[in-house]
Amino acid sequence: MSDILDLSIGEAGRQVRQGRLSFPELAGACLDRERLTRRLNAFSEIYERQAVELAEAYQTLLRNGYDLGPLHGIPLALKANIDIQGHEMHAGSRILQGNMAGRDAVVSLRLKQAGALILGTTTMHEFAWGGTTDNPHYGACHNAWDAARIPAGSSGGSGVAAAVRSAFATLGTDTGGSIRLPASMNGVTGLRPGVGRISTEGIFPLAWSMDTVGPLARSSEECALVYTALSGETPLSLDDAPYPLRIGVIEDYSDQGLQPDVARAWQQTLALFGEMGATIAPVRVDGLENAVDAQVIVDAAEPSAVHGHWLQSRPEEYGEDVRMLLQAGLGFSAVEYLQAQRYRTWLRQQLERLFRQVDVILTPTLPFTAPLSGQAQVVIDGQPESVLTGNMRFTCLPSLTAMPALSLPAGFDAQNLPIGMQLIGPDGGEQMLLKVAHHFQQRTDFHLRRPPCINDSLSP
Amino acid sequence: MSDILDLSIGEAGRQVRQGRLSFPELAGACLDRERLTRRLNAFSEIYERQAVELAEAYQTLLRNGYDLGPLHGIPLALKANIDIQGHEMHAGSRILQGNMAGRDAVVSLRLKQAGALILGTTTMHEFAWGGTTDNPHYGACHNAWDAARIPAGSSGGSGVAAAVRSAFATLGTDTGGSIRLPASMNGVTGLRPGVGRISTEGIFPLAWSMDTVGPLARSSEECALVYTALSGETPLSLDDAPYPLRIGVIEDYSDQGLQPDVARAWQQTLALFGEMGATIAPVRVDGLENAVDAQVIVDAAEPSAVHGHWLQSRPEEYGEDVRMLLQAGLGFSAVEYLQAQRYRTWLRQQLERLFRQVDVILTPTLPFTAPLSGQAQVVIDGQPESVLTGNMRFTCLPSLTAMPALSLPAGFDAQNLPIGMQLIGPDGGEQMLLKVAHHFQQRTDFHLRRPPCINDSLSP
């Protein structure tokens, strides 16, 4: 039925401009899709009446020559920790329940100025502090490919909404992996811009020295449209080949301890990039064994500083997991925090040197595919690994170094769960990452496959 | 009656946000005002049906929290040489009659993204090449204060529409004075940004090395809102005092050969700035006797290069004055052009040095107030001066040096015709000029007086 949602943002926009489709139809298709997939709990709030009014208004603007560009009239959804004027911004928490945003976050305003239609907000892990999007206050969000599994987090709803296309693209926030993890586990493309690249003003902070905000969407091309609106940068032509392309692979790291299907996808991805003309170069990074620990310290101490007051005065209003993490964050010493920051600088210097030899670094996004809800450990090669540290294993590298990274769909496991690969770029490399991913996506269809729940819904 | 149009842009916006006024009412008031003042011929085209639709759409957006800022829903008008998607861009010419713009000029798009409502286009001197806005193809535009007089040009319609407030603000283009002259003669504030500050992409060129685009409005505060939307700069707070302020006055220049009422306003302006705490410093600029000649050369050769082909193939389609000017432009030698450009560099270097000693330079905008239509000369102290060179006497300095300048209302002559003063600033000094003008306007009411044609129209 709802073929409209198979159109890319660019195609949908062209059809509207040719009069073969309208913004009200586009918004209606997303609202219908949201209803069909409601049990996944991707949306936190849906501005349905507003969406109908806005779609009409955007149609009127376009008819009168007010063409604000490729996002004009395109339904998007934003993570629930982003201020949208006149709407609740609860960041998945009970503490902020009823907190109405008096003004827009910078990203919300930029999307509005680009003509986007904000359909609503997406579910998230409480205060963005966790990777399962199992929210004690607003319910659990479920993986788009298998509702028994986690959608990852903290931007779980953004990943699921982008996967089922109840929105054409979504915004997530990423501190230690919160865009890339749900992108990987739900089979969509997610860009974590470098720290500071896009203003986080009006977004509830997690760990300010690593916090970023960026798009999740089906394709790199779609992410690029959103990224351009957010950054104000002149867009690169994605169609220009990114070659010669030198891809760095970190020795004794990127191919270690992977689930067999992930390991297979890793090898196939390398082979495909090789066929496409990229040079694969082994590179070394020292001290990676300390990366997850460093991230844990920074990603614990900074949030606990943010939450200090509430943690004292309203501890019972936090979910248990988040309260424990925040309380744990109080236990780190200043010296531990400073050592972690020194480690970050050293790691960043290593990567800066590497980026003189290679254009991007490739890793898997995660060692495994989506675990079952409630599953705390994944066993790989007989070795148990906690989901929490497994989540950080590869995503910590851009987080610690404040560099941009992108997760792109690169395969499926035997259970038809998506597998993601992570491209890491140097400072300012966001567009280059989008371009490399676009070229991969022109040769592959992993990003085009539809989660079974959509096909089921659409079957007669 | 139409008190709405006495509201500043800021006040009108606040009233809409408080629910005491609506965008359809605002647009309706401007459309009514345009009808009442139609004999002045300020508008080239009015998008009436569109204005009604857009006003409703903007009201819908605002109601749903899409608040695009202070220009949201504010009716503006653009000079007829600026591309507005889907509308005719004829630049006041017969040659471009029926030329439909396929896309927006950068300034049009930026205003749309800021939520502005473009009411239509304003009349102009053919191809912007002249100072009377007496257009052989579309009729003469008339001064807002006395319809028997010229509104100046080339952005005459923009000056008149801003003066009678058939639009809250307008865009003009300024090469040799085409924003500042109509601002001065119609009693409004007009900002010529420095060359290159605002993109002129999508605007029909006159002389590319001096072309700029900027706002005309009642107050500096209103010009600042438009300038911010166009430039994307973070706005200065206009309310912070610009003091200490050092105002440079060019010896043997700024006070020479002025009509007596202009001379009186000049002295009063200096005195007022002095009272407000500014230091008035005499400064010297060498070689000013060559400035008008240099401007004539550049402002003739570059347009003639642009028009070369049509001048050959379709000369009969130009108005006589413009054809003659363009043909005259063909007669300059390359050496003359290059010498003029060398002179510009030397003049600019002098001004750059001056701007280490003073913050702004003050001159009258014009030696005289609005001449009668058809009047070719103005006699001052028994000396005849052509309107054409008189127009350039003071405005040429920023044009030649590519620096920003602003004309602000600073008095009236015995016939109740407005007098303007010109503030010139260094590169990047646009916001400072707006701030200095704002402080002047907080102490004066010249910019608030209404042209008699409005009062007449409103009398029972």
TrEMBL record, chains A, B:
InterPro entries tied to this protein: Amidase, Amidase_dom, AS_sf
One GO MF term: catalytic activity
Record-linked Pfam families: Amidase (PF01425)
TM helices/strands, residue ranges: none
Domain annotation Amidase: ranges: 29-434
Gene3D superfamilies in the cross-refs: Amidase signature (AS) domain
SUPFAM superfamilies (UniProt xref): Amidase signature (AS) enzymes (SSF75304)
PANTHER family: AMIDASE AMID-RELATED, TRANSAMIDASE
Protein name, per record: Amidase
